[in-house]
Amino acid sequence: MSLNNNLKKILIIDFGSQFTQLIARRIRELGIFSVIVNHKKANNLNIFNNNIRGIILSGGPLNVYDSNKFKFNRKILSLNIPILGICFGHQIISKELGGKVKKSKYREFGLAQVKKVGNSQLIKNFFDKKNTNNVWMSHSDQVFKLPKDFKVIASSKNSKFTIVEHHKKRFYGVQFHPEVTHTNKGKILLKNFLFSICKIKKNWSAKHQKLKLIKDVKNYIGNNKVICALSGGVDSSVVAQLLSKAIGKKLICIFVNTGLLRKNEAKQVVDTFKKKLKINLIYVNAEKEFIKRLTNVSNPEKKRKIIGNLFIEIFERYAKKIKNVKFLAQGTLYPDLIESKSVTGSQTSKIKSHHNVGGLPKKMKLKLVEPLRFLFKDEVRKLGLELNLSKNIVFRHPFPGPGLAIRIPGVITSQKIKILKEADYYFINELKKNNLYNKIWQAYAALLPVKTVGVMGDNRTYEYICLLRAITSEDGMTADFFNFKKDFMQTISNKIVNNIKGINRVVYDVTSKPPSTIELE
Ligand code: XMP
User: Are 451 and 462 within 8 A, CB to CB?
Assistant: First the structure.
């Protein structure tokens, strides 16, 4: 399904920078649609249709002379479209047009001061009164000879050609990263590129997306039926609500209660989607089936596989009962599609087999509808609000597909699940009560498979340890533990131990990711 093809856009060519996704996000925050393509795909000129109003060449770990590792499509430079090269992108423009790049005498990583030495539309309002600004650098090569007709706009102590331009061609190069927040007023520089140089008009907001996606989905689906696996998480909730607005009762959602959800969650999903939003919802209570298949299983990967497979089995079982279904809706997001990590050819080793309600079987022979496939998570949240979903759903912490099963290391029993649901409930409520829930990216309680001795009243206890985890993060790829005040920790520890039979000790996880992961298994 090719939504958004006819929107005016900025094309970002990715050379493997860790910041490429940030470039796209900043541009979208400025109200312009942007897409990322891997540099290998940029050799196909078909992608340069009339709707591209500007091109950004990203940074990357490559060296401009390393032609074994990449081939630059020179035709990009003769399309008469404005180009902004960032870091490696800046170096490649210079090299291709006759300039020279070489290893810097000093590598520049971190903050650097740049000084204005020329004028350009690109730097309007970018410099302070003393004509300086602090920017974020991350490079070891640099341009040391500019191509013909380029002029210097700004320099730093270590790189003379920090901002350059070819006015007539509308080519710009910056050695630093305007997309990272450490670069002061980096967004202003990007804004100048978009609006003063590319002359593109705002076309990207939650409202635009809502109207456009509803229209596109309607056209794409016609009179057919769509099924959707609803988990109650943000992504599948937004997909369901969007489709419901677009095709009404032709959407059928299937919600599988695995018994591994948070306390009250199943009821909340049914209340919200079936009762309040009047969406066609099939509720499947599969608690017993899941616990049966998980009996005596303690290996984390086995647990994940069993849960993923059973989920699919049940979903298919119910989906088959609905006649004439042509489409399957999934909450795939943009970061899942971007192929930026393969520039150096390295494969990251498999840490965990993620089970996602989105990852449904291909063999079902249904056509996919993935209306969120061009959106980042924060955009999905804004779209959710625009679609009138409650803040409660839209700003929920992420919850893993295998649910509480991976928060009970070792063997799972109904009793352990019951204890954990209560502990998690107390923890999350306490966070909400103290206005901490929205400051934390994800928080949960886990039940460790260890019993320890305690004393309550005059009696000895021998019960489980509850582990609490709360992290801050941008995207779940890296994370840091949240620094609670002692009072909070004392209160929550007391509440859990005093109210939940089965737990007599509470510990807090203070590891970051890496070296740990967010979940325990
Ligand atoms: P880790 O534990 O890998 O978690 O650091 C990163 C983020 O992913 C979530 N997570 C999952 N989400 N299916 C999901 O949909 C899964 O199988 C799964 N495993 C982990 C985790 O909660 C965190 O937000």
Answer: yes
Closest ligand 1 atom to residue 401 Cα is 13
CA–CA dist 227, 326 (Å, integer): 8
CA separation, residue 459 to residues 456, 462, 466, 506 (Å): 5, 10, 20, 18
Which stretches within 296-409 are classed as H helix? 300-321, 334-337, 377-386, 391-394
Q: Which residues of the chain have pLDDT under 50?
A: 1-2, 340-348
Taking every pair of C-alpha atoms in the chain, what is the biggest distance, in angstroms?
87
Answer yes or no: 179 catalytic. yes
pLDDT of residue 343: 43
Q: Given this model, what pLDDT does residue 421 score?
A: 98
H/E element holding 488? helix 486-499
Distance CA 134, CA 434 (A): 37
Burial 9-26 (b: 16+ CB within 10 A, else e): bbbbbbbbbbbbbbbbbb
Question: 3-class SS at 14?
Answer: strand
Protein residue whose Cα sits closest to atom 6 of ligand 1: 476
The helix (H) or strand (E) run that includes residue 102 is: strand 100-116
Query: pLDDT of 222-256, one tens digit each?
Result: 999 999 999 999 999 999 999 999 999 999 999 99
pLDDT reported for residue 68: 87
Please pick, among 87, 198, 253, 466, the residue that the annotation labels catalytic: 87
Identified catalytic residue from 39, 90, 108, 179 = 179
Residue 511 CB–ligand 1 contact under 6 Å: no
Q: What's residue 69's pLDDT?
A: 85
pLDDT score for 13: 95
> What domains appear along the chain, each with residue ranges and CATH number?
9-197 (3.40.50.880), 206-394 (3.40.50.620), 408-508 (3.30.300.10)
Phi-psi region of 38 (alpha: psi -120 to 50; beta: other; left: phi over 0): beta
Sheet holding 367-369, edge to edge: 281-285, 251-257, 225-229, 325-329, 367-369
pTM: 0.83
Element (H, E) at 486: helix 486-499
CA 495 to chain centre: 34
Q: What is the pLDDT of residue 339?
A: 53
Q: Is 442 in the pocket of ligand 1 (CB under 6 A)?
A: yes
Q: Which of 39, 139, 166, 177 is catalytic?
A: 177
